[in-house]
User: What shape does this take?
Amino acid sequence: MPDRHETDPGSPEAGPLVRPYVMTWGRQRSDAVQLDMISVVIAARRAEVDEMALEPEQVAILDLCRRPQSVAEVSARLDIPVAVVKVLLSDLIGRGYVLARAPYTTESPVSRDVLQAVLDGIQRL
Amino acid sequence: MASKGSDPSSGENVIPSAIKILIAGGFGAGKTTMVGSVSEIAPLSTEELMTEASLGVDDLSGVEEKSTTTVALDFGRITINDGLVLYLFGTPGQQRFWFMWDELALGSLGAVVLADTRRLETCFPSVDFFERRAIPFVVAVNCFEGAHRYDPEEVREALSISPHTPIVLCDARSRESSKEVLSTLVNHVAETVAAGV
Ligand SMILES: Nc1nc2c(ncn2[C@@H]2O[C@H](COP(=O)(O)OP(=O)(O)O)[C@@H](O)[C@H]2O)c(=O)[nH]1
Ligand SMILES: [Mg+2]
Assistant: This one.
């Protein structure tokens, strides 16, 4: 613990997988490391992937994430527990191979537009 | 607010944002059935790895040994538009899974509590959970053949559900019926937001 000066003291979740260059990703770093079940992940199209440096499961994740997927979907489709998927994904995000989007949360009141969109989406089914 | 989720530095990657609704209720109440009836993908199941220590609540033995356990979670997906995806999670209703509900409930739009007409009381822990956390929910009474036909007000009385909480009868196997349940929930969330509760 004492030698992890690069991690934000305010984020207890930041573990050894948090590399400093995650910060260069351009949005809040916590998006990258605090993956939720419904964080949506996608393989970065421009990334040049060094597959030799990855776990086989990570190669499978990259393949699956050519279309946007939630963490839960990656877990279910590859049959890897969510907690493990999060670790593998954090590493891929750190390498710049995967981009993630934090879920829409309702800690602040949901906007009418979102509610209307959800309602329309349900009724369209 | 369904804004484009592309990372500015990557140009072509557009990442949708996700939102979730929970489908709760006792074992066999029809949670997986409801998820499946509206999901655009066959319901998926994921396993959450948990150490027994985090189950702690009802384990008073004080044993330090941490064995791991897995909890299965069913979910489905509905694409709302290019920028928004809705996930439906069927959440196990037993009290010993509450540690998992907390993470799941965080940031959810709202919840459907499925009441099983054969054993109404099994949805009570779910009702209690959402009430305590002020998460908007609706009660959907899943009508099983041969079971007592409740009318919504009977259910409200039996489970002492607040007059503001919508109660609807449903058939979890029917897409139309499940759509109606979800629409009722979203409208209820809209009213809750408007009322500033
Ligand atoms: N008659 C009837 N059966 C249902 C209905 N919903 C679910 N079932 C059946 O009840 C069983 C349990 O449903 P399931 O969705 O697995 O329950 P879960 O444990 O809450 O996920 C399944 O065999 C379903 O086919 C319903 O609305 N009516
Ligand atoms: Mg089920």
